[in-house]
Amino acid sequence: MQQPPNGVSVNHLPPLAWQKSRRSNPSGNCVELAELPGGAGIALRNSRHPDGPALIYTVDEIAAFVLGARDGDFDHLIG
């Protein structure tokens, strides 16, 4: 599968296994991620708008973000 464009409607993606963080809270302030078939990337969507647009990233882009978050690179953004 070729990587779809960013902002693609979730309805235009194949069925995906979306996953929230365990830190997700009941107020719905979270995002969900799902692996695209064939290693075509990772989709990210707002859990409050499950049919809304999805942002599509490569596995390397998600790895860079997750590892940076793990290292504290973005701590200043959350106060």
From TrEMBL:
Annotated region described as Disordered, given as residue ranges: 1-27
Residue ranges occupied by any DUF397 domain in the UniProt entry: 16-70
Top-level taxonomic group: Bacteria
Protein name (Swiss-Prot/TrEMBL): DUF397 domain-containing protein
Organism: Micromonospora sediminimaris
